[in-house]
């Protein structure tokens, strides 16, 4: 089954499927090399992809590609350094992956880093001489404990020697997978280098797996590089106070798909420490695919401005500046600020021809899809306030709301444009943090930020985003398709955002899952695609409350929807909050909104195929007047679009 985030046109697929053996190997090497750049938030240029195709087809040798790439960046010195890094490292990595020679030694590990990063990092191939920490989004800002600088070389030698002397003779395949997951997790945790550890570890590990007889030629590293790093983080982190423990569970899923051709759903979201996924225990970790690299580089890199500088100050500074750091905007026009804020924002370059920087972005689309477009806007004082929503979360929530609209159509989000109206006197740091949130959610779902606009205003802060996506031709899941006999489904829990908002307003530090859902909601793109592929007849995302969304489906489809209220799953935090406030938990579900779960209908005979861990059947559809009825303790109650009030009905 196709999954969100990997459903894009693969430039190397034709060679993998139809090419000769040599073309197949080259295509796999290039695909893996390019995909692995994502672990550090890098995307190679379309120029490199074109060169790679010529190499695969035998038109150019790798040596010629080295020369062409070097000449290209000498001819175009204004190209972003990070794009150049992605291109150069991708070429070197494909070369390493095609080499058959390999030594399972610490020197080989250091050599791989040196070959990948010479002239890119100052100390390529050298063990770092300083201790490091890296804030991880999936750890809610905490860090893995990395190897101590005084023991790096000794630890690397020890781990490799231990593995070299280990015998797999008496292990079954599940035990083998678990052992391999433990080995690569320990190797990565050392973090021998200052930068480039995950990419180096991946190349070393792939080549080592080949010596064990595994082919390692499917798309796992190429399409799930971010998941791989997330799983490494999760395998090396524990917080006993939070009940979070080290586990190789997620690495094992990755390796089972990689080595045994299994088909586990690899979701970064389920790894967050505050994950609400029903089948994940407390120790689950969520991780933004692009990790700390985005936090460090994406939008907060204003060398010439201070945190206290306002937007107007920055405009004046940029207008009057005669020297601009390399890679920065050199002169201010109406798009200068948006250009600066949207640096490094192409997370899936497959279709992007021109991103930020021209009058329009230019992107291509495949011929077998319908395009989807949706817009959301947030106004300070109406949709959010400083007391409940940090600047980062403003951007994150806006991005999530837009992506969720695409999910509700059964589509895949691709691109986004963002416009902001910034109050005069507002600090630039606020704007940067808003865009940081947007970058993180877009990175998670491989959504490119390809443009936008920015203006100053006397009014409140306003931010608007338009998202572009696609869905296979004639397969959009509309609100108007519900039919007599359909089952009604929802994904996961409702009411958490309601509880999160009210606990924030009350100043409560309880209900951490609810606060997380309210501040950083989760768009259910993968669930939307699953439902679409199984034949869902209608779908909506729950942004305004279950009552509103079901009525929209009933009215659009001209059917009666019957809901069994007792079938609605109740999260423990929703139950606890509502009990403490003497209210029904169902009220938060019907009227709360902003959970961004999906609700929809599907033929009854296909409902059983929906994954039970993420879908719940809550009712059915009958021909009749356009309305929603709920069975509450045996009594059928009409649910108005605004929801029904339990207090008015005398239920409490």
Describe the structure.
The chain folds into three domains: 13-227, Fido-like domain (Fic-like fold), CATH 1.10.3290; 298-472, 60s Ribosomal Protein L30, Chain: A; 479-638, PurM-like C-terminal domain (Phosphoribosyl-aminoimidazole Synthetase, Chain A, domain 2). The chain has helices at residues 13-18, 21-36, 46-56, 62-75, 81-98, 106-117, 152-164, 173-190, 197-211, 220-223, 225-235, 249-260, 291-297, 311-320, 336-341, 391-408, 428-444, 496-505, 512-519, 525-533, 546-557, 572-580, 585-591, 604-607, and strands at residues 352-354, 362-363, 369-379, 412-423, 448-457, 462-472, 486-491, 538-541, 559-564, 598-603, 615-623, 627-632, 635-638. The protein is built from 24 helices and 13 strands. The relative contact order is 0.09. The longest helix has 18 residues, at 81-98. It has a seven-stranded mixed beta sheet. A four-stranded mixed beta sheet has the order 3-6-4-5. A two-stranded antiparallel ribbon has the order 1-2. The chain is an alpha+beta fold and 652 residues long. Helix 4 (62-75) packs antiparallel against helix 5 and helix 18 crosses helix 19 (512-519). The model is unreliable at 1-8, 15-21, 276-335 and 643-652 (pLDDT under 50).
